[in-house]
Design a protein that fits this description.
The chain has 9 helices and 5 strands, in the order E-H-E-H-H-H-H-E-H-E-H-H-E-H. With 201 residues, the protein is of the alpha/beta class. It has a 5-stranded parallel beta sheet with strand order 2-3-1-4-5, sandwiched between helices. The mean pLDDT is 96. The structure holds cytidine-5'-monophosphate (C5P).
Length: 201
């Protein structure tokens, strides 16, 4: 069975959590496409050229454990604004989406550019303040001196860059089901996503 779930939305809206949960629920494979851009961003921080890094990326060998820092996210979002970087990552993502047995992909442009014919499209979002608070709590577990105002400013700056770029800007597809998680628990957000998917199965 080929069944593709496209999940897009801004940073820290709960996309990853919802995506992993629905992939497990339905037994679908899961791809966090942000990791592809983060891997490119990390290479740029090491001095590489963004386009060359994207073109030579071996997506199957990405180790996400080193890539979830604010610095890498910032470099990823800058590299992600370059059309050549995005173009180099398209084929891998489309190949993943077509695998048998169902696939969930999360990112910024899955429902609009990568899989415009996805079986289900979800746009998972939340207010900037709620998202910054979640990111703040997450970062506070790893670092001691995290400043909320700084985290909020970073979240807003990354949203602004992702939404205003010419190449595949962050926007909900016309046929996406919008799930605003600002006032939802994880369980409620997951169950909204499961219902939307079940309606199309
Ligand atoms: O989702 P995550 O925060 O890991 O993504 C990091 C950055 O990669 C985003 O801010 C965005 O600029 C970029 N990205 C993208 N398209 C995707 C996934 C991520 O442009 N499909």
């Amino acid at each position: 069975m080929q069944f593709t779930v496209a999940i897009d939305g801004p940073a820290a809206a709960g996309k990853g959590t919802v995506s992993k949960a629905v992939a497990t629920h339905f037994g679908f494979a899961y791809l966090d496409t942000g990791l592809l851009y983060r891997a490119v961003g990390a290479r740029v921080l090491d001095g590489a050229d963004a386009i060359e890094a994207a073109q030579s990326l071996n997506a199957k060998e990405i180790d996400g454990s080193q890539l979830r820092t604010a610095e890498v996210a910032e470099a990823a979002s800058k590299a992600a604004a370059m059309p050549e970087v995005r173009a180099a990552l398209v084929e891998f993502q489309r190949g993943f989406a077509k695998r048998q047995g169902g696939a969930v992909l999360d990112g910024r442009d899955i429902g609009t550019v990568i899989c415009p014919d996805a079986s289900v499209k979800l746009f998972v979002t939340a207010s900037a303040e709620v998202r910054a608070k979640r990111r703040f709590l997450e970062l506070s577990e790893k670092e001691s001196s995290v400043d909320f105002e700084q985290v909020l400013a970073d979240v807003k700056a990354r949203d602004e860059r992702d939404a205003s770029r010419d190449a595949a800007p962050l926007v909900a597809a016309d046929d996406a089901v919008v799930i605003d998680t600002s006032e939802l628990t994880i369980k409620e957000a997951v169950s909204a996503a499961v219902s939307a998917i079940e309606a199309k199965l």
